[in-house]
Amino acid sequence: MADYIGQQLGNYRLTQLLGKGGFAEVYLGEHVRLGMKAAVKILHTSLSEDETRAFQQEAQTIATLSHPHIIRVLDFEVQAGIPFLVLDYAPNGTLRHKHPRGTRLAPSLAVDYITQIASALQFAHDRKIIHRDIKPENMLIGSWGDILLSDFGIATIAHSTSSMSAQTLMGTLAYMPPEQIKGKPRIESDQYALAVTIYQWLTGELPFQGSSMEMIAQHLAIPAPPLRNKVSDLPVELEQVILKALAKDPKDRYGQIQEFAYMCEKAIKNVKQLGTQLANQEISNTLPGRAYTSVKSSDPIPPMVSQPLQQTTDYYLNKSKALIEVKQYQEALAMCEQALRFDPSSALLYVNRASALCGLKRYQEALEACDQALQRNSRISLAHYNASEALMQLGRHQQALEACERALQFDPSFPKTYINKSRVLIELGRYQQALDTCNQGLVYDAHNALLHNNAGVALANLGRYQQALEACEQAIRLDPSSGLPYVTKGWALIELGRYQEALVACNQALQHDAQDAWAHNNASVALMKMGRYQEALHACEQALQLNPHNTKAHANKAFILQNLRRY
């Protein structure tokens, strides 16, 4: 295999080999102009012209997968016939590295991992994308303990080439469902592979073992051995859920992968004690004579989770983060506060607490939680980001800008920080800098709708209305569920003299959020421009009812009344 250290692929200079597998090597790459770090995955194959087109099409598809538990594809290219992808860099390694073969995990931790991965897979499945290579080696650990799924689509590319080694095939075979072995993968195939993964985590063994031919035969025809044959105190309900997901016929598995994860969670929900040896620590089958220290009953660990401190903290971190992602902020806050009672030294718990408080619009408390996090670890980018959000909402824009700068210092690739920074710069009237910030953020996430929207706002304030309109259209294509781009689109169309189209855009914004004062205000301007003063007055009064301090709406109302001759 070639050594690529020191070479440049695309915009990235390769500085360190991070790992290698049967059909790919992963290098740490540094952007030659921006200095950002990324993982560069180089496939061990040369592609024909047809294969190159297939690779590019596959890469374009997976590049659209933007989800909290999916490693993003930042770029892809074929250079001198060698395909490579540029991915988010996750510096904490994989779950395979964290939990080596032979390790048994507590059910609560294993199910927590499964829930996060299932969330990512459901997102992909909803877009008709199958992963095809689910295994612990493709599950990475994010900067604050979250689990990130990598290598979407790469198995498709590798399996289509003749250079795939027998060793790679065997490693993949351990998790491969019967229909995929037959060359007919489907959505349910990922569920089977995920079930093999949790089977291995809970028992320390794969359900099917042996040579490649033996594993193929077992996957195709032999039921997986019951988990309780290996771990007698495992909940019966959890065993049943996993064995169902391991059904040979995809139709006999769960309808959706999130249903599988939900049933796993449900199976352990009411289980408070699963045996001291299994629940209190990971157990290595490779160390049969090892002595373990039990958690004392006096230790400050909640009764629902009797695990070592770090494992318990990780559990609460991941659970609270998952709750924040689905906007269950009160529940996330309660979980953080419970965890902080037994681990008050965790900076990341304070980060999650701040995120939940921001979601609840309790910004002063959120700022205090950020301070607590930063006292424990001043280099956590997300703590600085949360501080910027709280400061911005409190109207402290200059301090919010400084918090954004600190966040970017520690993580220059986090798109949300660029969103906040551009918003603050717009509030400060620094529109060109706001536009530059949006463009910097789009280098890391070209599919971020909010960055395109903020660019549209900056462009409109700079008087570049046609470009603003184009930015808004792109934001709408990327996220049609958001009303924000329609508001800016309406403004740009008014300035371009396209009043009827502007009114349509305003109405579309109000369909998303009937309480958007700016959408009502823009609608009043469009109606006024078309001479529909009575309707314009009604829209203007709606805007003022929602925001009595809107000076533009007051000015519009005065003009409308003058035209209606109502002094």
Automatic annotation (TrEMBL):
Q: Which Pfam families match?
A: Pkinase, TPR_1, TPR_16, TPR_2, TPR_8
- Gene3D superfamilies with a match to the protein in the record: Phosphorylase Kinase, domain 1, Tetratricopeptide repeat domain, Transferase(Phosphotransferase) domain 1
Q: Which InterPro entries match?
A: Kinase-like_dom_sf (IPR011009), Prot_kinase_dom (IPR000719), Protein_kinase_ATP_BS (IPR017441), Ser/Thr_kinase_AS (IPR008271), TPR-like_helical_dom_sf (IPR011990), TPR_2 (IPR013105), TPR_rpt (IPR019734)
User: Where is ATP annotated to bind?
Assistant: 41
Its keywords, alphabetically, are: ATP-binding, Kinase, Nucleotide-binding, Repeat, Serine/threonine-protein kinase, TPR repeat, Transferase
* Protein kinase domain location: 12-268
Among SMART domains, the record links this protein to: S_TKc, TPR
**One MF term in GO for this entry?**
protein serine/threonine kinase activity
Question: Which sections of the protein are TPR repeats?
Answer: 313-346, 381-414, 449-482, 517-550
PROSITE patterns to which the protein is assigned, alphabetical: PROTEIN_KINASE_ATP, PROTEIN_KINASE_DOM, PROTEIN_KINASE_ST, TPR, TPR_REGION
Question: Which branch of life, at top level?
Answer: Bacteria
Q: Which PANTHER family match?
A: MITOGEN-ACTIVATED PROTEIN KINASE KINASE KINASE 20-RELATED (PTHR43289), SERINE_THREONINE-PROTEIN KINASE YBDM-RELATED (PTHR43289:SF34)
This protein's name: Serine/threonine protein kinase with TPR repeats
- Organism, by scientific name, is Ktedonobacter racemifer DSM 44963
